[in-house]
Amino acid sequence: MVKSSTPIWVLIFAFMFGLEQPRLILIFIITVISLGVILTVAGETKFNLTGFLLVLGAAIVSGLRWSLTQMLLQKEEGMNNPVATLYYVSPIMFILMTILSLIFENPFHVFNTSKHFEDLGTGLETFLLMLLGGFLAFCMTIAEFALIKNTSTVTLSVAGISKEVVVISLSVLIYHDVLTPINLLGLVISISGIAGYNYYKIRKSSDDKKVRYHALPSHKNESLD
């Protein structure tokens, strides 16, 4: 539920870095979407302070990360190419993730004891599945960077919520997961918020076009001699 606050942090950092103009309607829409997601995933949970702080920190850092990514992609002197951006940020990401994995996960012990690596055939199958997952993650990251470059981090955040709504809906249809009335209410609120954001972006785009049109210099028709 705490992770559902990510869109709010994305919006806060977008305001802080000047990526979005503070508008009450935008704040209202993002708040509605976040509230809807919280209700959608609401359930009986046991509160743990450490877990709460870790998830809250992850949500805050996620908002900061995407705002910095937008600044990197959209500035003229920045790396305004999604592939180039990924090329430069991937090495440090790989190094940090490897260090954290060695500290907390002990991967060598996992490789030696896991049934997924018990023989050559199983190990090869596991490796291919990991390779497929990595390729899909690569494509997803490129798509996210391209979306940020052409829109904004707030739009990416709303798109992420849309993905969660689709996943929850598919889980109900395919795996017959049961949603409580509160979960259903949250789903409706989330969809309404997403629709409201789309309407807001369409109106904003239309208004921007009108402003640019009226800002064009007028030229008087000159008669030819």
TrEMBL record:
<feature type="transmembrane region" description="Helical">
    <location>
        <begin position="24"/>
        <end position="43"/>
    </location>
</feature>
<dbReference type="InterPro" id="IPR004853">
    <property type="entry name" value="Sugar_P_trans_dom"/>
</dbReference>
<feature type="domain" description="Sugar phosphate transporter">
    <location>
        <begin position="1"/>
        <end position="198"/>
    </location>
</feature>
<feature type="transmembrane region" description="Helical">
    <location>
        <begin position="154"/>
        <end position="176"/>
    </location>
</feature>
<feature type="transmembrane region" description="Helical">
    <location>
        <begin position="124"/>
        <end position="147"/>
    </location>
</feature>
<feature type="transmembrane region" description="Helical">
    <location>
        <begin position="182"/>
        <end position="200"/>
    </location>
</feature>
<dbReference type="InterPro" id="IPR050186">
    <property type="entry name" value="TPT_transporter"/>
</dbReference>
<protein>
    <submittedName>
        <fullName>Triose-phosphate transporter family-domain-containing protein</fullName>
    </submittedName>
</protein>
<keyword id="KW-0472">Membrane</keyword>
<feature type="transmembrane region" description="Helical">
    <location>
        <begin position="49"/>
        <end position="73"/>
    </location>
</feature>
<keyword id="KW-1133">Transmembrane helix</keyword>
<dbReference type="Pfam" id="PF03151">
    <property type="entry name" value="TPT"/>
</dbReference>
<keyword id="KW-0812">Transmembrane</keyword>
<dbReference type="InterPro" id="IPR037185">
    <property type="entry name" value="EmrE-like"/>
</dbReference>
<dbReference type="GO" id="GO:0016020">
    <property type="term" value="C:membrane"/>
</dbReference>
<feature type="transmembrane region" description="Helical">
    <location>
        <begin position="85"/>
        <end position="104"/>
    </location>
</feature>
